[in-house]
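## tool: complex_structure
## caller: assistant
## args:
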Amino acid sequence: MLGKTSIFIERHVKMIFVLPAVLFVLIMIVFPIGYTFYLSFFEWRMSGVEAPKWVFVDNYKELLFNDTRFWDAVWRTFYFTIMAMVLEIVLGVLIAVLLDRNHRARNLVKTLFMLPMVATPVAIGLVWLLIYEPTIGLANRVLKLIGLEPQLWIGSTSQAIPSIVLVDVWQWTPMIALIVMAGLATLPHENFEAAEIDGASGWQKFWKITIPLLTPTIFAAALLRAIDALKTFDIIYTMTQGGPGYASETLNIYGYQLGFQYFQLGKTSALLMLFFLLILVISFIIIKVRQRLEVYH
Amino acid sequence: MKARKLWFGRLNLLLVIVVILVFLSPFFWMILASFKTQAQIMSNDNLFIFKPTLKNFHSVFEEHNFMKYIWNSFIVAFFSTLFGLILGLPASYSIAKYKQHGLGLVILIARIIPGISFMIPWFIIFSKLGLINTYTSLILSHMLVGLPFIIWVMISFYESLPMELEEAARVDGCTIQGAFMRIMMPLSTPGIITASILSFIFSWNNFMFSLVLAGDRTKTLPIAVFNFMSYSEINWGGLMAAAVVITLPILIISLGLQKYIISGMTVGAVKG
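## result:
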């Protein structure tokens, strides 16, 4: 009744269904990472003339012990990620609680609120470039309106990262808020009713019931955000390209500059391996902590 | 008590409006500036009252040939999503049905790893194969953004579908792949819509892969907009018009299909 091929497919369906996707991922990711690892032991400038030169761990030594630009980029990456994540979580939870009470307009509000995170990052970068423009930008006009001194924003070495964080906060707070709102919708009503009968205030309910019950959700949102924030590239590259000087150069930007502006492929490969390891270690830690949290709840 | 509640409700509404205005203001600013001349943008009066001009859009389409970049972006986003679905749907079904969580994890890693860590090998290999500045390399690289996402969304979608339906079809003599095609695929349309829109948007928005792999012929919109900035450094009106051209399609799609997007963006983070 059935053809031979369909019997074969049915028997091996477990393999046949996943194999193409897994092969694709292996070829496009695992192999390149292996190749990057291999290249990280060579000095190579990708010119047709010179062959790659085996230097063993010199690239790593150079980065770790002899390259302040690398370490600065590492700290900046953390500075950016932590600042963005903390602000986004705090604001996101507050906004979610705020929007959750407002039942009438909730769907409209959610829709409008989602727009920053789907908008193209390059366009966002450009718009904020205009907003931060010291003489004609909206940012300084607002400061002037409330009687504050105008600022240099991304033009100043000390304000560059915080200014870009602000853009990231604008773009990604909505995601945290939407995740938290989805989490709020799953909370059991009984707890709140019981607390109300016991005479708990709104504030007490928020701290004693909402926040503890939401902790796993908030943690998951923070995990997603942290991993993406560490890799932020588009808005930084469009707004400052790592400048002024190297003031907003994160690991991702430094890796790009080293590889595709200076074509130091060996050293870049070493940097990318370190960056890759860093992301893996952080993801692993966050996932472990999350599992711990879930056990306690 | 009642008066206090009413007052509280009004304060809440006011706060909601303020929050929404703050979050939408960059978009207003962008659209406003795209209809202004350079002189109007530079001047300090009349932020909102001015004579609108279409000159910026004219320059974007006529002088900078944006139609071509829109087409490039569309081709790359469409095919990377289509191939992502072809690879991703059966894989996520199998992972959900046979609980192949290890494989699911492998594919999730693709989402965690920074894209730049495989840019150098790709660049070398695609150069050797003569695939730099072709749709092929762009579609392959963009699939790597879309595919893990498609699989992620679809696993949780298939897990929520009743597997008895498939078993019933099997009893009637259907093969597993037949039941997948005829029963599970139609049932999973909402999930597929969510996964495809987001995969399309991610590809449309992608900057880094195209920055390295695209050339003059295959330049996608984000690269065109970025280049526009470098040789017209302070033509703010033109820049904002370009920004409007690239974001508007996404904003319209999102407004129309918001419920799919929200469910996709928040999937996996909330445990029921």
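## assistant note: The mean pLDDT of chain B is 84. Residues 96 and 230 of chain B are 47 Å apart (CA to CA). Handing back to user.
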